[in-house]
């Protein structure tokens, strides 16, 4: 069975807050998921051809053609610095 420390580590990596009273339920849920994956790993798939996608993929790209625009985004933006848009920091590194 998965441990409380492993649940806490997964929660931290996922930026989830798991309360102590939810811990036992999470342990059961994760354990049942891992048991199901273990059963799937036991299946013999040697004779089964890999299916990369069931959807037909085709290139839908168009040629990139530059057009003149009367709007200058950098000048129109409320905060700009050194010819760049200045935005709020949204990424951080938690150790």
Characteristics of this structure?
95 residues; 35% helix; mainly alpha; Histone, subunit A
Strand content: under 5%
Q: And the CATH topology of the domain at 4-41?
A: Histone, subunit A
Biggest β-sheet, characterized? 2 strands, antiparallel
Count of helix runs: 3
| CATH A-level architecture of the domain at 4-41 | Orthogonal Bundle
Give me the secondary-structure category. mainly alpha
N- and C-termini, Cα separation: 27 Å
Helix content: 25-40%
Q: Spans with pLDDT under 50 lasting ≥5 residues?
A: none
Give the overall pLDDT as a whole number.
Answer: 85
Provide the succession of SSEs. HHHEE
> Compute the gyration radius: what is it?
25 Å
CATH class of the domain at 4-41: Mainly Alpha
What's the overall geometry? Answer: flat
Strand tally: 2
Major beta sheet, strand line-up: 1-2
Structure, explained:
The protein has 95 residues and is mainly α. It has a domain at 4-41: Histone, subunit A (Orthogonal Bundle). Helix content is 35%, strand content 4%. The protein contains 3 helices and 2 strands. The protein has helices at residues 4-13, 23-41, 73-76, and strands spanning 80-81, 84-85. The protein has a two-stranded antiparallel sheet. The longest helix is centred in the middle third of the chain and has 19 residues, at 23-41. The radius of gyration is 25 Å and the shape is flat.
């Amino acid at each position: 069975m998965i441990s409380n420390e492993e649940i806490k580590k997964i929660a931290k990596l996922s930026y989830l807050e798991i309360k102590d009273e939810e811990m036992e339920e999470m342990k059961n849920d994760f354990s049942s998921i891992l048991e199901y994956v273990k059963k799937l790993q036991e299946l013999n798939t040697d004779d089964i051809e890999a299916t990369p996608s069931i959807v037909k993929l085709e290139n839908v790209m168009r040629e990139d053609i530059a057009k003149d625009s009367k709007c200058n985004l950098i000048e129109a933006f409320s905060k700009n610095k050194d010819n760049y848009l200045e935005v709020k920091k949204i990424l951080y590194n938690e150790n």
